[in-house]
Design goal:
Layout (H helix, E strand, L loop, with lengths): L8 H12 L3 E2 L5 E6 L3 H13 L8 E4 L9 E7 L3 H10 L8 H4 L4 H11 E6 L8 E10 L1 H15 L3 E7 L2 E6 L2 H15 L15 H9 L9
Antiparallel strand pairs: 1-2, 2-4, 3-4, 5-6, 6-8, 7-8
Length: 228
């Protein structure tokens, strides 16, 4: 008789973090992580974490997208083996779309926060000549309703002691952003150790330049300064 093993706390934390970002669980309980080809290093990093935690997956696979804004482009992905915790997460989180409660968010650790940011976050660098110094804002493109966004704002203050502000991403869809330079620095210091493990994602810590300029500097072997 096959013995079903309960998921460990570490496994649950990572799976919830992956779902906060780009991870999806289909109605047939297939858990997939998909990325554009240029994020292969990042996906391999995720796969290594899954392997270290004993979460079986298909390894890195590819297909050519036939729909959406990636049509005709190569997409890389991994697919997780169906285990009981994935079925539970599908039932708890999809209502019918992804819905996160504070109880679920409280599972997230430092690495989980970094995954959330690397998946759905970006750093805005405002170097306008009208400002006396460069201003940095970390954004999390959550695209949730106002009530959920307000809950997430409280969560960040209570768990991470980081002040966030809520802003309207598009009509009736709200996202989060750090409220001031010091809050941005606090946030980036938490996620920095994990982003540094994925050099191609270092632009999310940059002190200056656009994302494209920072990456070009990296490719050219030039010094790339980060904010933290």
């Amino acid at each position: 008789m096959k013995v079903k093993r309960k998921a460990t706390k570490e496994q649950k934390v990572v799976l919830i973090a992956l779902l906060l970002g780009d991870g999806t669980i289909c109605s047939n309980n297939v858990f997939k992580l998909c990325h554009a080809q240029e994020q292969q290093e990042y996906l391999n990093w995720k796969i290594n974490i899954l392997n270290e935690l004993g979460i079986k997956n298909s390894g890195l696979k590819t297909y050519i997208s036939t729909c959406g804004y990636n049509i005709g482009k190569k997409v890389i992905y991994t697919q997780l083996s169906i285990i009981p915790i994935i079925k539970v997460l599908r039932r708890v989180i999809y209502k019918p779309n992804k819905t996160f409660t504070k109880k679920l968010l409280n599972w997230i650790d430092d690495r989980g926060l970094a995954i959330w940011y690397m998946d759905d976050g970006h750093l805005n660098v405002n170097s306008s000549s009208k400002r006396s110094s460069i201003q940095h804002t970390a954004h999390l493109t959550t695209c949730v309703d106002k009530c959920t966004a307000d809950m997430m704002k409280i969560y960040f203050k209570e768990k991470w002691n980081i002040e966030m502000r809520v802003w309207e991403e598009r009509p009736n869809k709200f996202s989060l952003a750090t409220s001031g330079e010091q809050e941005t620095i606090k946030f980036l210091n938490i996620v920095k150790p994990y982003i540094e493990q994925v050099p191609s994602m270092l632009y999310k810590l940059r002190s200056n330049y656009t994302k494209e300029e920072f990456i070009q500097h990296q490719l050219s072997g030039l010094k790339c300064e980060t904010l933290v």
